[in-house]
Amino acid sequence: MGEEVIASRNDRFDFLEHMSDIYVRAYGKDILELFENSGLALFDSMTNIDHLRPAVEKRLEVDGFDMENLLYKWLESLLLLYYSEKLMCGSIGVEELSIERINGDLSYKLKARVLCEEFNPLRHEARVEVKSPTYNLMRILKQEDKWVAYFVLDI
Questions:
Q1: 38, 88, 92, 122: least surrounded by Cβ within 10 Å?
Q2: Which residues, 6 or more positions from 61, have their beta carbon under 8 angstroms from its beta carbon?
Q3: Helices 67-85 and 31-46, axial angle in degrees (round to 10)
Q4: At CA 2, angle to CA 135 and CA 42, rounded to 5?
Q5: Per-residue pLDDT tens digits for 130-149
Q6: Is 60 exceeded by the pLDDT of residue 126?
Q7: Residue 2 has pLDDT above 70, yes or no
């Protein structure tokens, strides 16, 4: 599968060509920004995040057994905000990403503050409905001066 860019949001994320789902490449100058931009890509696939007026603050905490699992659970927790409360995040601030050893196993934890707005079909463009993140093609890479994540959203 090629990685032809079909839409780009500057240095934050790209939507890549995929046969049936949404294939995302997100960027960050550090791992925190990478997770922020990955979350914004999720919501930008569903609506134009530039039109959101985020006023509802939520705090999220997720944990995982490795970095890809943490990204999956992060995207899943953001999607849950939409499906449970119809909230779309227009501003995401990852405050902490930590790794600790518990009983010999590594545990990854992320804490974030998100600002959201309730989706209003009269005001917000409805793009696609994302069912869930997937592990398909998921990877997180540290490149010279940035972090890059690839992941697929099932629609």
A1: 122
A2: 109, 110, 111, 112
A3: 40
A4: 45
A5: 999 999 999 999 999 999 99
A6: yes
A7: no
Complete domains list, the chain, with CATH: 5-154 (3.55.10.10)
Instruction: Write out 7-26 in H/E/C secondary structure.
Output: EEECCCEEEECCCCCEEEEE
> Whole-angstrom Cα distance, residue 73 to residue 126?
24
Tell me how crowded residue 12 is: count the other CB atoms within 10 A of its CB.
18
**27-52 pLDDT tens trace:** 999 999 999 999 999 999 999 999 99
Q: Please say whether the beta carbons of 58 and 80 come within 8 A.
A: no
Token output for 66: 């490795």
* 3-class secondary-structure state, position 129: coil
